[in-house]
C-alpha cells in the first residue's frame, strides 16, 4: 500500500463521533476506509470489577494506548494488525482478536485519543466533535437505558462520578489539538463534504 492516512475523530461521550466516523466511512467506501475504535483497547478489568461503579472507564489509564500506538505505527507502514476484543459484559479482553487490514484511510474513533501525545502525533489530521454537556448527557442516558440495560439512577451516578470529571480533565482540554472542530448538534453531511474536500486538497 502506497500511503495510509490516519484520521483521529474525538469528542466527548455522546458527542456524535461514531456517527461522524460512520458517515465518513460511508462517504469513502469500504475499499478505501476502515474504522478503528478506542473501545477495543480497554485493559482487561475483570479482576477489578465489583459491580459498584468503582472502575473509571473514562480515565486514560483504562486504555492500552501503548498497544494502540504500536498498531497505528504498523498500519502506517501498510501492515495488518490484530485488534483486541473487549467484552463489556465480563470486562475481559477476549482471547480472539479481529484481523484489521490497512486501508488508504483509517479513522480512529475515541474520547481520549487526542489527549495522548504518542497517539496524537501519529494522526495525519484530526477532528473534534463539540457538543454541549446537557446534550451529551441526554443522549448517553437514552442509549445506556435503552441499549445497555442500565437504570437511569446508575447512568446519572456514573456521569457525575467519572464521565463528567474525566471529560473536563482530559477530553475538553484535548480539543485544542484537533485540526477541525465541528458542532455535534448539526447535520454532519455538509461537514463531511467540506472535510473530504479538505482531505483531497491538503492531505491525500
Ligand atoms: N449531528 C447530530 N445531530 C443529531 N443527533 C446526533 C448527531 N450526532 C449524533 N447524534 C445522536 O447522538 C447519539 C450519540 O451519537 P454517537 O455517535 O454514538 O456518539 P459518541 O460515539 O460520540 O458517543 C446517537 O443517538 C446519534 O444518533
Ligand atoms: Mg461512540
Textual characterization of the structure:
Strand 3 (81-87) and strand 4 (92-100) form a beta hairpin. By secondary structure, the chain is α/β, with parallel strands linked by helices. It is globular, with a radius of gyration of 17 Å. The model has no long low-confidence stretch (mean pLDDT 94). The protein has a five-stranded parallel sheet, with helices on one face. It has helices at residues 17-28, 65-76, 117-122, 133-147, 152-171, 189-203, and strands at residues 5-11, 33-37, 81-87, 92-100, 105-109, 125-130, 180-183. It has a single domain, classed as Rossmann fold, CATH 3.40.50.300. The two termini are 14 Å apart. It has six helices and seven strands; from the N terminus they run βαβαβββαβααβα. Magnesium ion is lined by residues 17-18.
Amino acid at each position: 500500500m502506497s500511503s495510509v492516512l490516519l484520521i483521529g475523530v474525538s469528542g466527548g461521550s455522546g458527542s456524535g463521533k461514531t456517527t461522524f466516523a460512520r458517515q465518513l466511512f460511508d462517504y469513502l467506501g469500504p475499499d478505501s476506509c476502515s474504522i478503528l475504535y478506542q473501545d477495543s483497547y480497554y485493559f482487561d478489568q475483570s479482576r477489578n470489577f465489583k459491580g459498584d461503579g468503582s472502575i473509571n472507564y473514562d480515565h486514560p489509564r483504562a486504555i492500552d494506548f501503548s498497544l494502540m500506538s504500536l498498531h497505528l505505527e504498523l498500519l502506517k507502514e501498510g501492515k495488518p494488525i490484530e485488534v483486541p476484543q473487549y467484552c463489556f459484559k465480563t470486562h475481559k479482553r477476549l482471547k480472539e482478536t479481529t484481523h484489521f487490514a490497512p486501508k488508504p484511510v483509517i479513522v480512529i474513533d475515541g474520547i481520549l485519543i487526542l489527549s495522548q501525545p504518542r497517539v496524537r502525533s501519529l494522526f495525519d489530521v484530526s477532528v473534534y466533535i463539540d457538543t454541549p454537556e446537557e446534550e451529551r448527557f441526554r443522549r448517553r442516558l437514552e442509549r445506556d437505558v435503552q441499549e445497555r440495560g442500565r437504570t437511569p439512577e446508575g447512568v446519572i451516578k456514573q456521569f457525575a462520578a467519572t464521565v463528567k470529571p474525566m471529560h473536563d480533565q482530559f477530553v475538553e482540554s484535548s480539543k485544542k489539538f484537533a485540526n477541525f472542530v465541528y458542532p455535534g448538534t448539526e447535520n454532519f453531511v455538509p461537514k463531511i463534504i467540506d472535510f473530504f474536500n479538505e482531505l483531497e486538497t491538503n492531505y491525500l
